[in-house]
Amino acid sequence: MKTRHNKKRNTAFVYEALVREATVAMLKKDTKRCNIAVKLLKRHFNDESILRKDLECHRSLYENQNLDEKTSEKILREAKIASRLLDAEGLFKEQSALIHDVNTELEPSVFGNYVPNYKTLASIAQIFSDKTSPKDQVILEGEIIKNMTNTLKEVVTVGEIDSVVIKSFTKKFNNKYKTELLDEQKELLTYYISSFADNALELKIFLNEEIARLKLQLEKARSVQEIQDDSEMLEKTEQVIVRLNEFSKRPIDDELLLTVMKTQDLVKEIYSDGSRS
Fold this sequence. Notes:
The protein contains 13 helices and no strands. The chain has 277 residues and is mainly alpha-helical.
């Protein structure tokens, strides 16, 4: 019989739930809530924290895919060793501190956030537990190995997770603001979600390209007669260009992302009648 799974003490689940909480808050333009979620992620999952080390053990099993069976088995074996070398008491204390901070600085509902690969995260937690029976251990390990050796199984790729999450978040956003997210906004949010996993490398690349595109579109818009005749619109366009130029000198934060999203809306509005190119 499998041991009861406590998702609040599943480090990987809480991490993923917080990432999605930050993203939902950004979609709702709730800057305060987004900042709190990001602050908790940075506080509890910094490079030196035991929670980070525990998270990496989990990640090695749910983020590695399309591997041969021998490599998957080796990764699983090493992940189990690394997990069991962690200070159990220290990990429990840090998990308790994280649970407390989520409850007090956000709210308990965070633990109810939808995480697409929840079943896999629960299986990994039981594999790492010394309370799991040998029989269940073998069965669970077999499932994880199968996921790691297949390209598209229960453990989906980051891109696929993002597509599911974006679909869910977009629905919430549409219901709240009665407006559709643009494709480029969805793409930005996809990179934002995955940025916690790769130190924002792909997000930075995308933003550099997207900001360059937006600046070019706005520069072209300044020569459009309708814009030149509208002093307020022209001034706003000039201000946005100045802000975009400043972004190369500042770190990525929610204010920057929201500004880019608003600029995407502005550019879409300027060119929406299809008469400009």
